[in-house]
Hints:
Layout: H1 3-8, H2 12-24, H3 26-36, E1 43-49, H4 55-66, E2 73-79, H5 87-95, H6 97-100, E3 105-111, H7 121-132, E4 137-143, H8 147-155, E5 158-163, H9 170-175, E6 184-187, H10 195-209, E7 219-221, H11 230-246, H12 249-278, H13 284-292, H14 298-316
Helix pairs in contact: 2-3, 2-7, 4-11
The structure holds guanosine-5'-triphosphate and magnesium ion.
Amino acid sequence: xxxxxxxxxxxxxxxxxxxxxxxxxxxxxxxxxxxxxxxxxxxxxxxxxxxxxxxxxxxxxxxxxxxxxxxxxxxxxxxxxxxxxxxxxxxxxxxxxxxxxxxxxxxxxxxxxxxxxxxxxxxxxxxxxxxxxxxxxxxxxxxxxxxxxxxxxxxxxxxxxxxxxxxxxxxxxxxxxxxxxxxxxxxxxxxxxxxxxxxxxxxxxxxxxxxxxxxxxxxxxxxxxxxxxxxxxxxxxxxxxxxxxxxxxxxxxxxxxxxxxxxxxxxxxxxxxxxxxxxxxxxxxxxxxxxxxxxxxxxxxxxxxxxxxxxxxxxxx
Length: 317
Ligand SMILES: Nc1nc2c(ncn2[C@@H]2O[C@H](COP(=O)(O)OP(=O)(O)OP(=O)(O)O)[C@@H](O)[C@H]2O)c(=O)[nH]1
Ligand SMILES: [Mg+2]
């Protein structure tokens, strides 16, 4: 069996290796993703929220509930803080450990390599790997810090935003622009004071401001400590899944993702092309000197570059 076939067959070691390959990028990664491309059929849930909101603990409980609705579940936790084995990474593993041995649950922590708080491109590719391997549900955990929230919205079919009392008074909630982020809102740590007030505020804000008039995100109180609200979160996610399928939004999202894939590859190719044919940026200093010594102008230089490039490409063909 070939390596990509082993992934499709669901072999855990091959899946893990596949993810390591896409994390490193390069031609090997491109070839693998090409082999696996048209096999993406997972439902993707993004779970985001401030550090320590209880995302990992909640996911741990949600897994059991989601098992009734999906065959195989993959969890990808993006660790924003440390590219190595940082505390958060270890913590996520421990919190989800009880599932680690089960056949139907795959858990992987990924470093986001310098994308502060963001989802690395590698996460997007890792989703493709587990998706090809037949995981029909993928849960991506990411800490909500600015850009990462936008990234997760683009990536996910349903985004679950976890809030906790104490972090966000009304103004913080407003400021962080959360109205654009979630389709399911959760106020976790409802065993602590202030959670109901926060839930009421968020509900009110959503009602007033939510972008989509035909879908109003629910606001759910949960507590990992008391094991409450878990079923409600799953129901809300399935409800949103239903909504997007009924309204064709899932198709729009697929189009957006493919567009993104093509754009990323195109950008990379154009950069390689420029570097190769123009010897850029090595040549920039030479061009600057030509202008300083009045031997040329930027306009002349560009014209010459363009003409040379056309000749160059003709030779290539
Ligand atoms: N009281 C209370 N504590 C909770 C609840 N949920 C989680 N915690 C605690 O909050 C802490 C952080 O939980 P995590 O699940 O690691 O939170 P996280 O959002 O995944 O954290 P990062 O991945 O580091 O951003 C842990 O000590 C949990 O035990 C809850 O509902 N109530
Ligand atoms: Mg976590």
